[in-house]
Design brief:
Length: 264
Amino acid sequence: MALEKIAVIGAGVIGETLIRALINNGTPSSHIFVAEKRMERRKEIADTYKTNEIDGLQVVDVVFLAVKPQDLIETIKTWDKSEISGKLVVTFAAGIKIKDIEDVLGREVRVIRVMPNTPLTIGRGMSALSMGSKATLGDQEWLSQFLGSSGRVVVVPEDLQDAVTATSGSGPAYFFAFAEAIEAAAKRLGLGDEEAKVLAKETLVGAALLVDQSGKELKTLRENVTSPNGTTAAALQSFKDSELDEVVYRAMKAARDRSIELSS
């Protein structure tokens, strides 16, 4: 799918990440058009990436919607339907359904909904795509290839997007929170602030790299660290006694349910 010109609506963290990825993937900055309501941010993006300010959507082939969920519908209501009809619109806003966008822009718009996560900003993102009724296989392949340059991509039915949000969308915060808890526990066990911070952070990083580079299943990696009746076994038994699996499930269910509430 050959695309020439792309609009990025919203230049926050995700919007800037998309702009940078487009340029890294060979899209000339002169073919990227950016809309951002904050004037100082708009100037910062233009100065950094040499992009254009947008003056009508008729000049672009694809629109990346990277605005906040609460602003999305009001933003697209201002668009001229004749300028957007038949074009590919990719939304990165949590909780906004494809139908909501199609209802505003018309059924001929090719909509793809994406749930990314923040590691996208360092090229290790997890993105889940759901296809609108008019989106084509070519659209899916192009977007999967583009987002795949900054991480991994899966395609799911839209009714699973709330579960994706609870898993990978919110997921990085779970691991950060667990590492924070390890740091706090280390201090309670007598370690100094700096030692506790380094030990917690580097253990998280090292464990993630093992998952990434070893090619082994999570269960195997856990078992490799766990000697019978050893220290790790004692800690894991405490987790089990505290019903860690159930705690994690309840937390993710709460995130999933909140995502459903936000999209209704």
